[in-house]
Amino acid sequence: MADGISFDTNIDLSPLLSALSEDQERHVTAVLTEKVGNDCNQYCPQDSGDLMRSIIKDVSAGVVRWPLDYAVYPFNASHVRKHPNPLAQPHWPLYAAGLHMDQWVDLGNRTIMAGFRD
């Protein structure tokens, strides 16, 4: 039986992250996980809304999850209903990454640079 889907929000900022303290690195991970989760969820298929509401943003691990067993079905579908969410996409986390990755990297870099000023 399926256990939902997970999306690892690991965005390679390693050259800059290596200079951060553990607290600063945790902060960057939390900021990015929150943003990635919000961006991904706007493309999540929505029938009853349960799947969208099921999102778990594990900011300590940098993972976004939709833990419902049936999440794999719309994720692996070739198409999804666009009503009531006209932005809905199959493989919605990957779709969001394709659209927003540059923004996520920019946010990560800005958050890191702000940490150096603190």
Q: How does this structure look, described?
A:
This protein has a three-stranded antiparallel beta sheet. A hairpin with a 4-residue loop joins strand 2 (56-58) and strand 3 (63-66). The protein has helices at 14-17, 22-41, 50-53, 72-76, 92-117; strands at residues 5-8, 56-58, 63-66. The model has no long low-confidence stretch (mean pLDDT 89). The protein is built from five helices and three strands, in the order βαααββαα. Helix 2 packs antiparallel against helix 5 (92-117). It is mainly alpha-helical. It is elongated and about 45 Å long.
Task: Please summarize what this structure is.
This protein is mainly alpha-helical. It contains five helices and three strands, in the order βαααββαα. A three-stranded antiparallel sheet has the order 1-3-2.
Strand content: 5-15%
N to C succession of SSEs:
EHHHEEHH
Q: Given the helix and strand composition, which structural class is it?
A: mainly alpha
Regions with pLDDT < 50 over 5+ consecutive residues? none
> What is the alpha-carbon Rg in Å?
15 Å
Question: What do the pLDDT scores average to?
Answer: 89
Sheet of most strands: 3 strands, antiparallel
What characteristic shape results from the CA principal axes? elongated
Q: N-to-C terminal Cα separation, in Å?
A: 47 Å
* Number of strand segments: 3
